[in-house]
């Protein structure tokens, strides 16, 4: 039977996300679900020179009842340049930055209006660069549940990863400072460790 995991779509997911889905053969996503405030749908954390910083995609209007697929990016704000400058400032001197950054820069330059589409494109690239052979599909509302595990709503910023059973940090090389910052955006791992990233993700899967 295919190992299929029902999961939320995040903006540049953190390492807990990838540890949680590391052995999946298929990821199932649910664009019709309602947007939740204080989620990872439009935010990610990167390591800057003096702190861990948050990159947030601005979204339009009030959203209490909107489905995820209908969340629109507020492109009236100069967020793309802010994110590009932030990523460059954080990782411009990282060993694998020049190899991987163009993949993401190309997507940023598309000026997407729909956050679901942007996140889908970025996650597709991240999985490819990691070398995780997992398929992505959208759940058909008319079908019966067909997944073997459901972690929707579990990976939230409101509670630390240590309270969940997915991620046990495996330290790796990071820029800036001596203390290791766990569970940052997948960008941190990819830019710092390159082809070794997949092995680090697999080592960070919490033993049950």
UniProtKB/TrEMBL annotation:
InterPro entries noted in UniProt: WbqC
Protein name, UniProt field: WbqC-like protein
Organism: Algoriphagus chordae
């Amino acid at each position: 039977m295919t190992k299929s995991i029902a999961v939320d779509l995040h903006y540049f997911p953190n390492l807990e996300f990838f540890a949680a889905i590391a052995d999946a053969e298929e990821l199932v996503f649910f664009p019709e679900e309602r947007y939740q405030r204080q989620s990872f749908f439009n935010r990610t954390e990167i390591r800057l020179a003096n702190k861990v910083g948050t990159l947030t995609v601005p979204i339009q209007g009030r959203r209490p009842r909107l489905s995820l697929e209908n969340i629109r990016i507020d492109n009236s704000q100069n967020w793309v340049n802010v994110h590009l400058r932030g990523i460059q400032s954080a990782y411009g001197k990282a060993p694998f930055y020049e190899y991987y950054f163009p993949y993401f820069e190309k997507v940023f330059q598309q000026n997407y209006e729909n956050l679901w589409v942007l996140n889908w494109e970025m996650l597709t690239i991240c999985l490819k660069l990691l070398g995780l052979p997992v398929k992505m599909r959208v759940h058909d509302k008319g079908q019966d549940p067909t997944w073997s595990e459901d972690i929707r709503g579990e990976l939230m910023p409101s509670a630390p990863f240590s309270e969940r059973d997915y991620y046990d940090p495996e330290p790796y090389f990071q820029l800036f400072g001596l203390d290791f910052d766990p569970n940052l955006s997948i960008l941190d791992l990819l830019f710092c460790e390159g082809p070794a990233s997949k092995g680090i993700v697999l080592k960070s899967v919490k033993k049950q």
